[in-house]
Amino acid sequence: MKLRRWQSIVCMLVIAQAASVGFLSAQQRTYEMKTVGKHSDEVLGVFVNAADTKFATCSLDETIKLWSLPDGKELKTLTGHLGQVNNVSFSTNGKLLASASSDRTVRIWDVESGKQKSVLNGHTAEVIGVYFSPDANSDFLASTSFDQTVKLWDTKLQSEVKTLRGHTMQANNIAYSYDGKYLASCSDDKTIKIWSTDLSTKEPIMTLTGHNAHVLTALFSFDSKYLASADQDGVIKIWKIPSGELARTINAHSDLVQDVSFAADNQTLVSASLDKTVKLWNVLTGENLMTMDAGVEVWSVDLTSNAHVIVLGCADGTVRLLTENAKPKLPKKGGK
Amino acid sequence: MKTFQQTFVRTFSALVLVACLGFMPSILHAQIGTVITVAGNVLDEVTRNPTTVNVVFSDEAGNRVVSSRSNSKDGSYLVTGLKPGKKYKVRIEQPEFFQAEYEIQLPNTSKYTEISRDFLVKPLVKGTRIPARVSPFEAKKSKLRVGAGEILDDFKRTLVINPNVNIEIQCYPDNDADRADNAKLTQDRGNALREYFEKAGVSGKRISVKAAENVDSINPPPIRKAAKGKRYVGSTYFVVTKF
Questions:
Q1: Chain B interface, mutation test: which of A101, A146, A232, most B Cβ atoms within 10 Å?
Q2: Which of A102, A214, A258 comes nearest B138 by C-beta?
Q3: pLDDT, tens only, B152-195
């Protein structure tokens, strides 16, 4: 879930308030799963917009679909890519969608019309990750590719402005920090590299090591104080930012974790795996807040700001919503 | 006693001699001309063993310029006397291998330069299976992936300059999930490759397609699941059926 900062703060306060009266206590989070639609092949990426009103999915079937929230109604199918679409990202204002594809292109789409606005050529291998900058106009876009590079694109000029080299193997995913200062890229070289968004700096600020397998994804919390990364062994690591200190290692899943996402409280993290489970975690304590057996391999996951709805992209092509059940009444405290 | 004239003549002669010696290398160099040497190894594309072949360099007009025979021990060859800035055609000649032709654009330099260029040659033996080193397909897809032309270009040229060779395209599926689906997928992949070669001028009659219901036993899928974009894609082979 990716939000504007003020929204994050509001949501954080709401969640903090709820948590204070026990609504979000770990054991009480239960969800109901519903399939809302289907791609004709595996769903590889999911992204919920900042307003929690839409989400986008992308697939091996080379299409992108837009859906409404919270009802999960299919709105549009975007076609144009010539290969599988590996990831999608909404701009901050929700008007643009970027997609990364094995056809080696990044494409930008107009969300309202569903039309393709631009094709960004420059990567020399499959493009896996894509992420808009968090500024109001999303002036930049970052992408990662199996060509081992991170590229920054000017979304208005529709041109490549910077190539970051440093990974020694395929680069897998990319994320901006929400304060706009950093980019995190992860790679088969088992590292995460933190880069400055300053256009004149081309060397990584730091390289985070500790994973023992290919690092498949990395994502900042909304307050930019934490970075979560997940690997091919199913391990999630939480890093403190900007120090880069390892805060926690969670042996989260029994198979690879391709996607994780933070809720707006900056503490709740959702992870999805090819072990067919979806899990919620408290990144501060490492506590498992919820485990759901989806019954199918899950490639991608995102959630709404309050974690009330979790969106899954599954290997059978289905798009599923996990909706939190109505809260049970809290047990009365003794003495009353 | 030496006269002033004698001293002057001797000094002048000595200076001329020193000057001539100083300029000698460049004078000689100018007479010979700058040359470029190309060296490398020739290997069997299937076994990667060194091979003995004739490596023939021709100019753009097709006139033979120089040739070398690669060493049987390590496949090494070396040709020299090539001109900077020129483009050469390199032809690999040996009856047991497909004829192969490449172009080399030499750098435009004023200094003697050595450049390296290795060649892979395809054995011309009936039944030889030449693998596509990089799959021209994406997982579960039968259409050629974007960029497949770069992968197939070498084999396309090989077929064009070896018009008497017939091949069978053998494609294998990505998993063992459904035999009927696999047969269709691999037949469609083979057809897509045949169509690609036909567009390049290779007669479709020279190309047959063999579908497969099960995964390649020589190069089976990994036991461990792969991340997105890194999925196992079934093997593709080009098999020599006639030459």
A1: A232
A2: A102
A3: 988 999 999 999 999 999 999 999 999 999 999 999 999 999 99
Q: Which domains are assigned to chain B?
A: 34-121 (2.60.40.2190), 129-242 (3.30.1330.60)
Instruction: Verify whether the Cβ–Cβ distance A82 to B140 is below 8 Å.
Output: no
Q: Is this structure's pTM higher than 0.80?
A: no
- Does residue B27 carry a pLDDT above 50? no
Q: Do B228 and A126 touch (CB under 8 A)?
A: no
ipTM topping 0.95:
no
Q: Which amino acid is at A293?
A: D
How many CA atoms lie within 13 Å of A316's alpha carbon, on the beta-carbon side?
Answer: 10
Look at A41 and B227 and tell me if their CB atoms are within 8 Å: no
pLDDT digits (tens, 9 = 90+) for B98-136: 999 999 988 888 888 888 888 889 999 999 999 987 899
Shortest CA gap B203–chain A (Å)? 28
